[in-house]
Amino acid sequence: MEVNKSSTKNINNEKGSSFEVDGVQPTPSPLRKMIAVASIATGVQFGWALQLSLLTPYSQTLGVPHVWSSFIWLCGPISGLLVQPIVGYYSDRSTSRFGRRRPFILSGALAVAVSVFLIGYAADLGHSMGDDLSKKTRPRAVAIFVIGFWILDVANNMLQGPCRAFLADLAAGDEKKTRTAMSFFSFFMAVGSILGYAAGSFGKLHKIFPFTETVACNVFCQNLKSCFFFSILLLIVLASFALIYVKETPKTKLELNDDDKQVSCFGELFHALKELKRPMWILMLVTAVNWIAWFPFFLFDTDWMGREVYGGAPGEKAYATGVRVGSLGLMLNSIVLGLMSLAVEPLGRLVGGIKRLWGIVNFILAICLAMTVLITKIAEHDRHLTGGATVGHPSDGVKAGSMIFFAVLGIPLAITFSVPFALASIYSSASGAGQGLSLGVLNLAIVIPQMLVSALNGPWDALFGGGNLPAFVVGAVAAAVSAVLAIVLLPSVKPDDEAKVKLAAGGFH
Prior knowledge:
Blueprint: H1 5-15, H2 31-38, H3 40-61, H4 66-72, H5 75-92, H6 102-120, H7 122-128, H8 139-171, H9 175-201, H10 219-245, H11 258-262, H12 265-274, H13 278-309, H14 317-341, H15 344-351, H16 354-385, H17 396-416, H18 419-431, H19 435-463, H20 469-488, H21 495-499
């Protein structure tokens, strides 16, 4: 049966499909549909903000020793390395009648719901299975928490990639619409971060959900449960609305070309590695060293506030207060990051190029991480002078210094979330390589350092008596090295090439 081409074109225009049918060129979807899909990032990033700010401290309240807590975070880079490419590969080739991206987004949202239940109720489930609450370590609760933690990271990676790909589909190859869609995605990620950190900093959220109070769950645990209830509610509402409102035209098996059927996602990646030019190898080196600097901060920022700045131990009120204040600091960090993302391009022009800007802000990162030593020593000195009276109540100067530390770090973080990806796009275009594969290769330079830091951080800290300062000092040194490498080794970029790339700060998973 012959298909009327003009009718098909009208159908495609109404649905905003990104697929060609009978040779008809698709048109971009309306902006409102792109905004609906991009808003899912708010729910994803809300949960991610809670994960960054609360889960390392929570694992220690369940009895995970500080030296081992970083090992739990191995799931993040491992799932980023494996899950995102696999999900991206199969969503590109999906012929589901529900569309290419929507089934993966729905599956990711449901997996988040399961993970949140396991994490929030780990203490209760562990107690019901025989954990002794009088003991410091609750092995069953820890096992349930770790399973939930890993599921959460996998689910986050299942969501982020298909959401970005869905936006690209809706843009239908229109460069301006694609940049606009990705900017909205970055905006909603910033909104989610601010809301998530704000929720984590509010100490009385559990009173809204009185059923969270149980024998095995203290106030910190109750607040964590309540925060995650908000997280899953927000994600389910946003994802449901987007998936119902924005339809996809299924891809048929006939539309899959021979390359789609024969080349695996990792085969493409290994081929891309073999074809890399020198500029991309240098960019990967600088990025890898830079993430050795950043990842200890992401792992232990709120733990540092509770342990070193507020002088508490996991399970104590002083520690929980420090974690909440640390979440407030991360909220300030996200606000500065969002504002700074608007200034990346003009600042790059001001200092003579974005690669030089990246080098400069890495020096700022090095100074900030080194300042944690000074803030910690002042807080410890105050506690010593007062005989411990300032435990849980550091001086105004220490509090202000901590908040300034978090806020200023938003400046280099905005550059880290934008400039390396822009440079990868520029270098890949100059060499004729595919941008998608080049960005996938750059992801290796992010997740491999994260795995190294997760595996080595705990033992490294233990060599110096525990605590978080040894990791932060290594981070400061790595930041300074990456600054020098960025300025000295990275190839210069022509202003015209920089102007072609949209610099929008986002996040990582």
